[in-house]
Every structure is written in C-alpha cells, then in structure tokens.
Amino acid sequence: MARMSAEERRESVIRAATAEFARGGYHGTSTEAIAKRVGVSQPYLFRLFPGKKAIFLAAAERCVEDTIRTFGEASKGLEGEEALHAMADAYTRVIAERPEWLMMQMQMYVAVGAAEQEGDTEFGEAVRGGWMRLWDTVHLPLGADANETTTFLAYGMLVNCLTAMGFPPGHRVWEGMYPSARIKGRLEH
C-alpha cells in the first residue's frame, strides 16, 4: 500500500474535520477526535494545519466550495426559473445524501456568531467571503436580480433549518416550497 502524500492527508483531515465539526461544532470538537478519525497523531495534524481554527476554516471553505460547485454545475447553460429549479433540486438532493454537509454549514454560522462575540473576526470574514462567492454563483443564472437571488437563498436557509430539525419529506411545513426545493426521500439522522 502506497503512503499518502501530505496533500492526500490534508484532504483526509478536511473530510474528517467536516464530519466531526458537523456533529460537535467548533467548540465541541477536539483536534484529537479529528486526528483519530484520520488515523494520524495530533502533532502530525499540526504539521498539516497550524491549529484548530485553520482546520475548521479549511472544512468551512470546502463546504462552501462544494455548494458553489453544486449550484454552478446545476445551472450551467440555464437561466431564470430553469436555473432556479435545477439549483434547488441539486442542493436538496445533496443535503439529503450528505447530511454532514448541511450540518457543517449550520455549524459555520454558529461559529461566526460565537467568534465575533469573543472579538474574533477571522471566522466571519472567511465565511462571509464564501457566502458572497455563493451569492455571485446564483445571482447571474437568476438574471442578476437581487430580489430573486435573495429569495432563492432565503428558501435555501429555510430548507437548511427544516432539514436540520428533521422535518420529514411530505410534512406540511414543506407545502409552501416550490417542488424543487422540497426534500425528497427519507432523511437519515
């Protein structure tokens, strides 16, 4: 079996950190748990990343980039309502299949609020920068209309909250959503 390169180990850490932070949040997740999940020592973990914050921010960045890629791929060549429904359908499919992705997003927002209460703006700057890239990704396919973009992202945040709370597909809380924004199938928790 070939040894993993530092970059492959780094990718393993980001995947493990996403799963751990999604479940325990920033403050509730230890670097020891991340190292254990990857199968490396904590000192090795800190050779790859300078600290816990850097690991969290790398996982947050990956989560945002995955969301941007999902929206970009879904809306490629589409505009307006076609793009909206394609992006909504792709997103709801991904968060149903990868619940850690959804929970990581939720933990990102909590971490920003907690960090800024403590006077740390680095989390917020990074997450807001990602959010703006996400905004730009959906803004153009939706006709560069600020109201359409805001409405789409507002529905997305509602989908996040309803899904995180475990409302099953078919529950009446989903009735006001356009069909492409509704969670399909069974949610696993």
In short:
With 189 residues, the chain is an all-alpha fold.
Account of the 3D structure:
The protein is mainly alpha-helical and 189 residues long. It has helices at residues 6-24, 31-38, 42-48, 52-75, 80-97, 99-117, 122-139, 146-164. Helix 1 (6-24) packs across helix 2 (31-38) and helix 4 crosses helix 5. The model has no long low-confidence stretch (mean pLDDT 91).
Number of extended strands: 0
Low-confidence stretches are: none
How far apart the termini lie comes to 34 Å
The SS-based structural class is: mainly alpha
Summary tags:
single chain; 189 residues; mainly alpha; 70% helix; globular
Fold blueprint:
Blueprint: H1 6-24, H2 31-38, H3 42-48, H4 52-75, H5 80-97, H6 99-117, H7 122-139, H8 146-164
Helix pairs in contact: 1-2, 1-4, 1-6, 4-5, 4-6, 4-7, 5-6, 5-8, 6-7, 6-8
